[in-house]
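Good morning C.,

I know you're traveling, so I'll keep this short. The sequence:
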Amino acid sequence: MTNDEEPECANPLFFKWVSEWYEVARASNAKTQHTLKKACVSLQRYPLLLENAQDAVQLQGIGPGIADRLVKKLASWRKEQGIAEPAAVVSEAASGSANPETSTSARQKTQRLYVPRYRSGAFALLIGLLKTYCLYGPDYFIPKSELVPICEPFADAPFHVGGTSHGSGYAQHTAWSGMKTLESKALAERQGGVKFCLTEEGVQIAKKVVEVLRTRNELSDDDSQVFSKLEKRSAVRAGSSSPGIHSSDFDSVAGDPVQPRAGIMSRSSSAPFTRQSSATAHVELDDLMSYPAGSYDVILVVDNREVHSTADRALIERELESQGVRIEVRPLTVGDYLWIARAKPDSAQRHQPDVVLDFVVERKRMDDLCASIKDGRYREQHARIHATGFTNVFYVVEGNDPDAVSRLGEAAVSSALSRIQVIEGFHLKQPPSFEATLRLLRQLTESLSDVLECVYAIPDSLIGLKGFQELKRGIRARFPQAHLAISFDAYDVVSNKSGSLSVGEVYLRMLMTLRGVSADKALSIAGSYPTPQLLIDALEADGGVKAVDELVVDGSCRKIGPVLSKRLAEFWTANSF
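The tokens, ready to paste straight into the viewer:
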């Protein structure tokens, strides 16, 4: 191969040496020429810089033998050039000579890092999926029909059958086959068969692929702006105290950060909550408590009922805390996991309380989901989640239980899963195991740290037990880009099972505790007998049971019936239980 024909290579020295070995092997017709040829092609196509020669074993065609030759050749070249060996290499060589068997075994067990070939289908798909990640967030699954147009400019092969590849005529295969590769490497996942998004590992590889395009000056201005936004978020997450980063660099979503008013919130004593609706209150952003970007840490809060044993705690520590995710365990009234913003000790907001962010996770195993559908907890939990005003709800259905599904019925389970997404508006996730759920939580925590900028907390004094959802919707309608939060005290109050119920609602719940009394039947009974005392008086009077028996259920021709009226009489007129 002449110098004019040699393409640009990220590792020119390694490519040159392996090419020389290949020419020698080919001239002598040695069997190693085929392996060396594969090694040349891999080095030629590999777009990233190899930190040391031993890392070359991750490439196709390069095993421990060729890697060892590269190590020795590199050491000889450094000696000729008068370049000192790096300390890490010297240390590794010393440990290897002391225990050569262990060193060889470790090299053989080195896990190869997958990096797609330049302008291949997988290469283009990683760029398209990362662009989707930056534009729409980590939880967005993009349809194939929308993804392909984004990826086409970055691939040589076409994405449709019958297309023509760049400079090679009719295409024998499509670039879309790279999606199968990404899924097999756990870099991408699909939803519903035709929608896709990146995994946590996929995001890291995709960032490296984009860096290759940037070094080649092949990124358009628009794409560069999209990807630089992701880098800026990573810089924010690193902290405002990093060199070269100042608080003025962090632009608030809804304008300049607003200085908080003194005394709006207090961690020890919050303002009294009112039952009056506050939806009509005229609220401005400067009425809210501000947490500017870079002034707070995002912390994952785990419900104490999720940590059943020491083994669970160890698993959480391994999958979350060891990966840099800060967690706290405390009782949660709604949801199994949520996130709080806590002011950094060195920030101007350090005296402000923790606030609950607008994101919550409800986790259920498949057998738990089937049981909750059967006993009615399923709908009641959804209602409580909506009552808290959370707009970003992740509903995790973990694993699979064919026995539980068959007992309840596949149609019922499918209907419930569809309702979660379509009617309730939750983000449905179905990880295969608890470990996969923890990895999802880690990814969500890191994404929130990247995405969130200025957070505004609604004061307790503005949160009415009956008007909180309307209040929050009103603020969001006026300031759609503001990230809203509430104090933990407010979260406990608005999510309490009975704290926000009126007397009439408690009465309806009492009626529905009896087997056979549905919501519509309870409403019909309460319509005719508005208070428990009126119902008791009617049941104790002569012919009272018969009168209840004849009640017609609202919206239908059905009656309460003699069996249910007798059960009501036994319950409400009994002297003891």
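Safe travels,
E.
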